[in-house]
Amino acid sequence: MIVKKQKTVCVVCGKEKSGIPIREDFVIRLIRKLKGIFKLSTGNRLVVCNEHIEEAKKRRERFEKGLLTYAGIGAVLGIILILINILISFDIIRLLQSLLLLILLVIVMALLSLYQYFPAMATQPAILEEAVKKVTRVTKVKVTKTKKK
Ligand SMILES: [Zn+2]
After folding, report:
1. Domain around 116
2. Distance from the CA of 119 to the CA of which of 56, 92, 111, 139 falls in 20 to 30 A?
3. Number of domains in the chain
4. DSSP single-letter state for residue 121
């Protein structure tokens, strides 16, 4: 097997440069998988070159803020729905259903913010991964609790 030397490409300027590697999160993995399916994969390693560290930080921050804002809007909408549900008639099944709907709303809203997605550098904290882990954990707890009934 011929091992091709991987090019390192800056995610900001797209030029072949060395720099800080980006963090592999689920978005990057998903893009890679899709590219693999459509045979578009370049096999490049993505980095942020020294010239674009500030730019990358800014764009990552913008994305994270957008993500939190959208998820927050989803949460507020979900809570309003729950309150309406409780006011109409209180029953535990409906409450659990609304809670699942709340989580779904937050996820959908978070997905909407992906249009401005920008990867984090390996040196930055992995808030996206953490958030995904948390949501998965909460969802699992909810589902097992519902199943026990
Ligand atoms: Zn660059």
Report:
1. 8-148
2. 139
3. 1
4. B
For residue 1, being part of any structural domain is answered with no
Higher pLDDT, 5 or 68: 68
pLDDT, one tens digit per residue, over 26-62 is 888 888 888 888 887 777 889 999 999 999 999 999 9
CA of 107 to the centre of ligand 1 (A): 31
Tokens of 48: 């942020």
Q: Is residue 2 a part of any domain in this protein? A: no
What is the Å distance from ligand 1's center to 47 Cα?
8
Ligand 1 centroid–CA 118 distance in Å is 14
Residue with tokens 């800014």: 58
| 3 located within any domain | no
Based on DSSP, count helices (H) and strands (E) in the chain, helices before strands.
4, 3
